[in-house]
Design brief:
It is a single chain. The chain is of the alpha/beta class and 388 residues long. The protein contains 15 helices and twelve strands. It has helices at residues 5-8, 39-46, 61-74, 85-96, 111-123, 136-145, 166-176, 204-207, 223-236, 242-252, 255-274, 291-299, 315-324, 354-360, 376-387, and strands spanning 78-82, 102-106, 127-131, 150-154, 179-183, 199-203, 217-221, 279-283, 306-311, 328-330, 339-342, 366-370. Helix 3 (61-74) crosses helix 10 (242-252), helix 4 (85-96) packs across helix 9 and helix 6 (136-145) runs parallel beside helix 7. The longest helix has 20 residues, at 255-274. The radius of gyration is 23 Å and the shape is globular.
């Protein structure tokens, strides 16, 4: 049938690439809808009876390529990519919890995660307990006291780098029939997979591109749990978009180079800060000779780019220190090529009781640094002049 030009511009022939002539970078399928030859083919895709794509809110090839990569790195079967890290946390908790369930989590965790569990889940009848991640006896008491749906934790914790004993937490969870959900963002995609964690969540905003230019989140688990939560994810509609996924796929090619270079620089800076008279209470995974450092070295092979310490002179001195830095951007997040600093005024958990504040290990002069890809000698010189 001969088309008029107005029809041809919409139904022009499609350029096909030969099967043995593949693009080096995975294509960006910037597309929402997918067609099939027959209605039965479409129904087969929707019902999961055959491979294929129907609607990008449910699945998209570019996003699926990223999901496959991340699941494999984490040592699990499947992954769901979402619009942000906090969204990955929220959707996972909503999908796994029901009214009457109980969640155990920890004072040292990320502030938005605490808000999701305490406020959002609380509105819908999910109860919670919040204790210190170091309190192993308290974890067992909480699990023995009532049926617990899941334990949500981080390691290293954000923002202060406490190290969870993953073997202890997973053993207790399995003994009492609770799921474990680990926010593994700071440790990256290649660590902690050796432990029997049920669900990993990540903020893809950090290490996937390494440039702080794309937001995203990921939920990684075994197939049966992903199947359990996927329908909720589709309905809530916060899937990662394909353009962002393509940028993350490109960025992941340099993931190990970046993560290990930033870890090496962070170790050098930890050594410098530990010996500086203006600084106290350095927290960097694996640094020093204490039990926490030994635990980090057992669990992790690379220690990450985040370190925390206290300015001895307090909060206002911490503010002046952050403002005098030349190579550290005053902004949250971590994992970027640029080095970042969070001053004490950006760190304080306002809702904590005095006891919870003590457990959190966030002091009046606490500062967090994310070490980027700048020359480490330049960074040390910058820190030195700001501390002086």
């Amino acid at each position: 049938m001969r088309m008029k030009p107005e029809t041809y511009v919409i139904h022009a022939p499609v350029v096909e690439t030969p099967a043995d002539n593949r693009p080096l970078n995975f294509p960006v399928y910037q597309n929402v809808k997918w067609e099939t030859e027959t209605i039965d083919d479409a129904l087969g895709i929707v019902r999961g009876q055959r491979p294929g794509y129907f609607y990008s809110r449910v699945s998209n090839p570019t996003v699926h390529q990223l999901e496959t990569l991340l699941a494999s790195l984490q040592g699990r079967e499947q992954c769901l990519a979402t619009a942000s890290g906090v969204n990955a946390v929220a959707q996972t908790l909503i999908a796994l919890c029901r009214a009457g369930d109980h969640v155990l989590f920890f004072v040292e965790g990320y502030g938005p995660t605490r808000a999701i569990i305490r406020n959002l889940l609380g509105r819908y009848g999910v109860t919670h307990s919040m204790i210190s991640i170091d309190d192993h006896a308290g974890i067992e008491r909480e699990l023995a006291a009532r049926p617990t749906r899941l334990i949500f934790f981080e390691s290293p914790t954000n923002p202060i780098n406490k190290i969870a004993d993953i073997a202890v937490i997973t053993e207790l969870a399995q003994r009492y029939g609770a799921l474990t959900v680990l926010d593994n963002t700071a440790a990256g995609f290649h660590q902690h997979g050796q432990y029997p964690i049920d669900v990993f969540v990540h903020s893809l905003t950090k290490f996937t591109t390494g440039n702080g230019d794309v937001m995203g989140g990921a939920v990684i688990s075994r197939s049966e749990l992903i199947a359990q939560i996927k329908s909720d994810f589709s309905i809530l509609g916060a899937q990662l978009d394909p353009l962002s996924a393509s940028l993350m796929l490109r960025g992941m090619k340099s993931y190990f180079v970046r993560y290990r270079a930033q870890s090496a620089s962070a170790q050098r800076i930890a050594d410098f800060l530990a010996s500086h008279p203006a600084c106290t209470r350095l927290r960097y995974p694996g640094w020093g000779n204490g039990a926490a450092a030994s635990l980090a070295r057992r669990q992790m092979q690379d220690m990450g780019c985040v370190l925390a310490f206290d300015i001895r002179a307090g909060a206002e001195a911490g503010r002046r220190f952050a403002e005098r830095l030349q190579y550290f951007a005053k902004t949250p997040s971590f994992g970027s090529a640029e080095s970042l600093v969070m001053a004490p005024q950006m760190m304080q958990p306002k809702e904590f009781t005095p006891e919870q504040r003590a457990y959190s290990d966030i002091g009046e002069g606490s500062v967090r640094l994310s070490i980027g890809l700048e020359d480490v000698e330049d960074l040390i010189a910058d820190l030195d002049q700001a501390l002086r």
